[in-house]
Structures are given as structure tokens and as C-alpha cells.
Specification:
single chain; 302 residues; Arc Repressor Mutant, subunit A; D-Maltodextrin-Binding Protein, domain 2; 3 domains; 10 helices
């Protein structure tokens, strides 16, 4: 069976107007073209849909049965087309993004607020996660994208660089190093160090070993969350080392950032997506916006 939308639209128009003249005008067709569409539809269905006289056109019993169902099909299709068009035009949509807590606070929250101002029709949903589990929602289909520090990935995950952020020293305003703009790693042996255990051990110490920098760190505290490290540094329990991108959060603890050189160590932050899944128009638009937002924010931080 080969029934076209043009035939369905012609049938509904003739049924609504009770004749071919007004129906043809609505469809922007000639009467003969409209009549031909009806004839083709009847041939495909194998039944008469209209009783025709010289004065009027009326639905047959089968036509009465068919018209309501045809209208529902047409309404559903037109609604689907509108929905898809709205999604493509960013008039609606839902974006789910997962990110670790620190980036959720410092980058994603202000970026989402700015994006919502430009695209109020798009719903943004944020899943905050631990670093070691942040890719899980992406792999199980809960979210379209993840924004976070670089981690090992599976082959079906695609990684795109967002920015690199240097590790810096965060200390109180009255700390002995607070008046310095730049220090070297070798100068940190005297201070009690508060570290994010896994991050420091896997990202910082290997680079220092490669650079032949030997420091006897007084690692007094090892914590799991950045806010804990910042809170302890603010309380005077030591200093902490973390990427510069946490600046918006560190300011709340009234901590000062000191650049650390020789060597300069960077923390890469990336966008993770599925290779086998196309991004929705809304998600693609948000990630494009996020890239521009992150560039501006990092310029301000550094």
C-alpha cells in the first residue's frame, strides 16, 4: 500500500469543506488535482470514501470511519515535525551533563546560568559526581556529556580538550609566601601540605620525579574533597595545591593563589561524549557555548 501525506491532507480537506472547491483553495491546488488525489487514495484503500452528487460531496460510512483516524495520524505527524523543528531551532530541549563537584561549582554553575539567559526554553540538568565515577552516567546513557579532568577512557568514549589549568599554591593571606607572585616547588618543603590524595599522587608527584625535583613534602593531611582542603587551609592547618580553575571556590575561603614554577604542571579538563551517539542540537549548542565561556573564565583566572 502506497498512501501519501498529500492524499491524506486532500481527503481531510474535502471532508471538512464538503466539496472540492474550498478544499482545493486550502491546499493551493486545482480542483482536478485534488480530485485526482482522492481517486488515488480510494484506489489504494480499495473503497469509496465519498458519495458525490452534482451539488455536494459527503463521506461514505467507511469514509466516516477513516476520517477521524486519518486526522489523528496527521495531527501526530505534524506535532512530531514541530517538535523536531523546535529541537533543531533550540526552541526546546533537555541537556544533561555530569561533572565533578569542584567543576560544577566553579565552571558549570555560572556557565549554565549564562546559557539559560540566552536559551530560556532549554532545560539544563546537572549531575554532580565524584571524579572516579563521573563517566558512569555517560556510559549508561543517563547523560549526553561529561565535563571533567582527564581520566582514562574506554574506546567508545571521545575526549575533547576544554582547557589546561596550572597547579598553584593556595594559602592564607597571612602566610609567609602570600606576598610572592611565583615560587618554585623546592620551596614547599617547610609547610604542612593538605592534598587531594589520588590527584596529588597521580598527577603531581610523577611530573616532579620526571623533572628530578626532590622534595620532602610534609604531607600532614590527605583528603577526598577539594572543599575540605580549602577549608583546612583557610583555618591555618597548612597549604594546599590545586588547579587554578578552582579560583571562584577558593575566594570564598579567602585564600590566595601563588604560581608554582620549575616545573609548571598543568591539569587538563576535557569534554567527554559517546562516539556512537550523536549529540542533540541542545547539547551541541550548550557545549559550544561552554567552550567559549571556559576560555573567557580561564583568562580571568590566570
Amino acid at each position: 500500500m502506497n498512501i501519501s501525506l498529500r492524499q491524506i491532507r486532500a481527503f481531510i480537506a474535502v471532508a471538512r469543506h464538503g466539496g472540492f472547491t474550498e478544499a482545493a483553495r486550502e491546499l493551493h491546488l486545482t480542483q482536478s488535482a485534488t480530485s485526482l488525489l482522492i481517486k488515488e487514495l480510494e484506489n489504494e484503500l480499495g473503497m469509496r470514501l465519498f458519495d458525490r452528487t452534482t451539488r455536494k460531496v459527503t463521506l461514505t460510512q467507511l469514509g466516516e470511519e477513516f476520517v477521524s483516524r486519518a486526522q489523528r495520524v496527521l495531527d501526530e505527524l505534524e506535532s512530531a515535525v514541530r517538535d523536531v523543528s523546535d529541537l533543531a531551532a533550540l526552541k526546546r530541549g533537555i541537556v544533561k551533563v555530569c561533572t565533578p563537584q569542584t567543576l560544577a561549582t566553579t565552571l558549570l554553575a555560572p556557565a549554565m546560568a549564562a546559557f539559560r539567559h540566552e536559551h530560556p526554553e532549554i532545560v539544563l540538568r546537572l549531575i554532580d559526581s565524584r571524579l572516579d565515577t563521573m563517566l558512569r552516567p555517560l556510559m549508561n546513557g543517563e547523560t549526553e556529556c561529561v565535563v571533567g579532568p582527564d581520566v582514562p577512557i574506554e574506546p567508545h568514549i571521545e575526549r575533547q580538550s576544554l582547557f589546561d589549568s596550572p597547579y598553584v599554591l593556595w594559602c592564607r593571606q597571612d602566610h609567609r609566601l602570600a606576598t610572592r607572585r611565583v615560587i618554585h616547588w623546592s620551596e614547599l618543603g617547610r609547610d604542612a601540605l593538605i592534598v587531594m590524595g589520588q590527584d596529588f599522587a597521580t598527577r603531581v608527584q610523577p611530573v616532579l620525579r620526571e623533572a628530578s625535583v626532590e622534595i620532602d613534602f610534609k604531607t600532614t593531611y590527605e583528603v577526598a574533597y577539594m572543599t575540605t582542603a580549602l577549608g583546612m587551609a583557610s583555618a591555618g592547618l597548612g597549604v594546599t595545591i590545586a588547579p587554578a580553575f578552582i579560583a571562584p571556590l577558593a575566594r570564598a575561603f579567602e585564600l590566595k593563589a601563588i604560581s608554582i614554577q620549575k616545573p609548571k604542571i598543568l591539569r587538563a579538563v576535557s569534554i567527554f561524549t559517546r562516539r556512537d551517539k550523536s549529540l542533540s542540537p541542545a547539547a551541541a549548542a550548550f557545549l559550544e557555548f561552554l567552550r567559549e565561556f571556559a576560555v573567557k573564565q580561564q583568562r580571568a583566572v590566570h
